[in-house]
Amino acid sequence: MEAFNTIASNILTVERSAPVPVLPEQDTPGGSIFLSSIDNVALTIMSTVYSFNRSDADVAGVIKQALSKVLVYYYPLAGRLAKNSQGKLIVDCQKKFAVPFVEASANCDIENLGDIQIMDSGTLGKLVYRDPTENMLEDGPLLTAQPVDG
Fold first, then answer.
1. CA-to-CA distance for 113 and 63, rounded, in angstroms?
2. How far is residue 113's CA from residue 67's CA, in Å, rounded to a whole number?
3. Which of 23, 66, 123, 150 could form a disulfide with 106 if both were Cys (CB 3.0 to 4.6 A apart)?
4. Where are the alpha helices (DSSP H) in the chain?
5. DSSP for residue 83
6. Pairing state of beta strands 99-101 and 148-149?
7. Can you give the residue range of the structural domain that contains 120?
8. Distance CA 85, CA 70 (A)
9. pLDDT digits (tens, 9 = 90+) for 29-56
10. Domain count, the chain
């Protein structure tokens, strides 16, 4: 299956829009949220792919609108990591940060990519938007979104 996924990575082409900021639909409380000691030691970036059945709806528009609504309740996801005066990591929710949202289009359906549970990094890199600031501790977004229409 690994060979098939490598081939899938070579045939998969994804065109992306420029990132646009998605803000919470309403004002949020702001403030700072302290993280656990484990979060201060084991900082990890996770990439996930969710696959859904095809729809005739404007998928990107629906997801963008839903994200804006859900960020009202989960506003820390639009925050950024920062360090407090003791050097501990916190989630800074005081500024009007946003979630980068990228619309993408692929030249094939996800079924053509084989087993997506064992996706190689080349394929994953095309399906998941990686913000250029994600490795900068205090600049990178906590969440990005990229719906792909294939």
1. 23
2. 27
3. 150
4. 2-11, 37-41, 59-70, 121-127
5. E
6. unpaired
7. 2-149
8. 31
9. 989 999 988 888 877 778 888 877 778 8
10. 1
